[in-house]
Amino acid sequence: MKRMLQGILLFTLICLSVTTIAFAQVKLTMGSWRTEDREFYEKVIEAFRKTHPDIEISYEPTKNTEYNTTLNIALQTGTGPDIIHLRPYTPGIQLAEAGYLEPLDGNIAGLEQYADSTLIASRAPDGRIYGVPAKFSSIQIFYNKKLFAQYNLQEPQTWDELIQIAETLKQNNVTPFAFGSKDGWILALTHAAFGPTFYGGNEFVEKILKGETNFTSPEFVKSVQIMKDLAAYFPKFYTGLGVEEMRTLFTTEQAAMFVEGDWEIAVLRKENPNLDFDCFPIPSATGGKPTVSTWVDASYAVNAHSKNKEAALKFVEFLATKEFGTMVSEDLHSIPTIPGIEASDPLIAKILKYATDPETSTPYMIVVYFNQGNPSTKTEFQNLVQGMYLDQLTPEQVAEGTQKSADTWFKPAAQ
Prior knowledge:
- The protein is of the alpha/beta class.
- The chain has helices at residues 2-22, 38-49, 64-76, 90-97, 116-119, 145-150, 159-171, 184-194, 196-199, 201-210, 218-229, 243-251, 264-271, 309-318, 322-330, 346-355, 365-368, 377-389, 395-407; strands spanning 26-32, 55-61, 83-86, 132-133, 135-144, 175-177, 255-261, 277-280, 292-296, 299-302, 335-336, 361-363.
- It has 2 domains: 26-134 and 297-320, Periplasmic binding protein-like II (D-Maltodextrin-Binding Protein, domain 2), CATH 3.40.190; 137-295 and 359-407, D-Maltodextrin-Binding Protein, domain 2, CATH 3.40.190.
- The chain is built from 19 helices and 12 strands.
- Helix 8 (184-194) packs across helix 18, helix 11 (218-229) packs across helix 19 and helix 18 (377-389) packs antiparallel against helix 19.
- InterPro entries: SBP.
- Keywords: Signal, Transport.
- One of its GO terms (cellular component) is ATP-binding cassette (ABC) transporter complex, substrate-binding subunit-containing.
């Protein structure tokens, strides 16, 4: 009897041991610059673990302005995250070329659903795909509905109407635009909002890629001049304000308009749940259609040197499903890259309409096509615009400096 009990006990211990091994936890880390989206990604991880309980994922974001440097150092020292929130286009592709990323085509399902124009955000020169497109982003003007109603203002249909709105607000001691030039990336983004209606949108992009025009053209100079002219409607001491201060001006209703990406919707709602706001595209200065600059805003990649590569690939594959696409729309309040996802949020549905319409959508040109060089042409442009706002440079000098940077690496398609 004693031996029988010992046998049963031994069998039970073996079963428990096998069960423990079967459900052993694989622990992954996910790097990102989206500190604001922690709650969303933890929800995504929870959804993934319903079918993969053996995989734990820790979301570990870094401050936006420090992410690139932090990630590069981590990858160089072999301590990079298993899953990488990849900057779109050139910065991400450079990591692939350096051997830090695992090719995804052939390793995960779901990539076939994306358009080629979407996949270029993470397609390297070798033709391989290194990232699952995260989401589309767009730039528009958010506005305070209460302040607009207070001064009988309507969404502008022309550029002149937008300027008249800004004048009315200024005359009533309301800051028209929540803006600051301290953070360089905001300057490139703001120009991507206002610039296309002056330099010619898609037509200009096609010409510059073919070498038929360049950044010193009168229309591009005009697009930079407009950035300077709008300073009349910015807050006092705007050169010392960063994006957090800009956001605070808008959420505390001190400023009526806020030029930003769609990712701000969730952040604005969280910071001030009572804020009643809407958005509109950039009205045309020439009587044409409004414009909305769009791009693939990051992708999800797998560290080629991850010790748990198989588990990381499973998670990235989940990010190519309609379940995740729906979460992007409904929980992150952003534009999913996965086709066929509709938005129930009226604000997201409105943005989706403009962002996917070829007559209004235009690429975020300097991110999609001019983010190369050392420093990149995008970085150089941002620095030059900062100099313009400090009255150190003219719009013509900004344009000339931008072209000088592009000349160091860019080869037009016609050449």
